[in-house]
């Protein structure tokens, strides 16, 4: 799929104020700093459409980006960032869970995982939460440029084992990406295109 337009529409912390057009949307979620905003920029070929930072905790709201005038990418705040206050964490958690539980337009969530790391409890718990909430999701491994191809495959295989030990019958559909190298872009856009045309 060719990206012909990508436009920021609105940021907010209230799911009822998200755009009310009945267009399919895809949301990016995962630990702070995993590369959610960078991946949105990579997919849309824009350097600064979504704000990124080397410091965790950059994205703090639900951000809607309209793509090709007929679907949305949604950038969300990260979870698991230790340095925000307990109160802020609770507020984030509330609007993120509201988003996943109430947003009718959401067709698929992308759970981002840093390919370098061993499976983290917080991610496995989040994946289970999506399962219980019946939100369709895929896993996206990020920052593949930081390790070699062989190591990447080993880490994905180890992750799969952890996911299955965590109660899943099979590994959810997954993609390997690098925002700095453009790895995985075609596959992800083809996946979205396929759903959009169903
Ligand atoms: P929050 O908004 O804080 O939750 O973070 P985020 O998940 O949106 O991460 P963001 O896209 O802001 O990226 C965090 C840091 O990781 C930045 O310094 C990015 O440049 C870097 N980064 C993101 N993706 C990649 C990647 O594929 N490869 C490399 N090498 N660095 C990346
Ligand atoms: Mg971000």
Task: Furnish the topology, listing elements before pairings.
Elements: E1 6-12, E2 25-30, H1 36-44, E3 62-67, E4 71-75, H2 86-102, E5 106-114, H3 121-133, E6 137-142, H4 149-165, E7 174-176, H5 185-196
Parallel strand pairs: 2-4, 2-5, 5-6, 6-7
Antiparallel strand pairs: 1-3, 3-4
The structure holds guanosine-5'-triphosphate (GTP) and magnesium ion.
Magnesium ion is lined by residues 36-37, 58-59, 75.
Cofactor: Mg(2+)
Domain EngB-type G: 22-198
Keywords: Cell cycle, Cell division, GTP-binding, Magnesium, Metal-binding, Nucleotide-binding, Septation
CATH superfamily: P-loop containing nucleotide triphosphate hydrolases
Q: Could you tell me which ligands this complex binds, including any ions or cofactors?
A: guanosine-5'-triphosphate, magnesium ion
Q: Give helix % range.
A: 25-40%
Class per helix and strand makeup: alpha/beta
**Biggest sheet, in brief?**
7 strands, mixed
The topology string of helices and strands comes to EEHEEHEHEHEH
Which geometry do the CA atoms define? globular
Strand content: 15-25%
